[in-house]
Amino acid sequence: MRDIYVVTHPEATHHLEDRVGGWFDSELTPRGHEHARLVAQALHERIEVGPPAAVFTSDLRRTVQTAEPIGAALGVTPIRLQGLREKSYGEGGGMPDAWFRERFVPPPAEGERLEHDEGIAGAETKGAWVRRVYAAMDEVVADPSATTVIVTHGGSVSFVIAHWIGMPLDALSRVAFRVPSGSITHLHRDDYFHNHAVVSLGDTAHLRGR
Question: pTM of the predicted model, to two decimals?
């Protein structure tokens, strides 16, 4: 049996400043820090006492700041994986959203989508992004811990989930799981059928009223 809890980082400074995130190394706002504490508390309550859980996190500041109270609550040191970062938007990272929208070329409805050039210099293609996240997930699932926490970003969470349910890379050109900031998604593998289930998606009950 295995349980994976996927956390999307809470509110960060680039959200309030209307800037592109990506690899731009923004940090949590005071509200984001409070929400990270509530995420850690919720996970501490959900995860049964037993062998230590493993915590993996993107190495960007806003996710590390989210993972630190989770690690403290569970008594483990988070492991940083660059592969869990958000999509790189190249020169667009940290730029005003209006600047980005003027230059961004959305993918076509049909045809090549994974390797589509979005018009932003230095940006990852979606194909490069998903291959990076899938490689990071290979490392995560190779860890023998029965309980794992993954701290990542609102875009990359789609590919964390897709990897868990076994979607092939070429199917990911159209995949998107929309979840709120500061949410917890619960993934589970049972001991009988060995199914990989999505138990809950983007749960924010722990943030209610905050």
Answer: 0.96
Domains and CATH numbers, the chain: 2-207 (3.40.50.1240)
- What would the two tokens of residue 139 be? 């490392």
Residue range 2-50, pLDDT digits in tens: 999 999 999 999 999 999 999 999 999 999 999 999 999 999 999 876 6
- CB-based burial label for 146 (10 Å; 0-12, 13-18, 19+): middle
pLDDT in tens, 113-169: 999 999 999 999 999 999 999 999 999 999 999 999 999 999 999 999 999 999 999
Paired tokens of 122? 């230095």
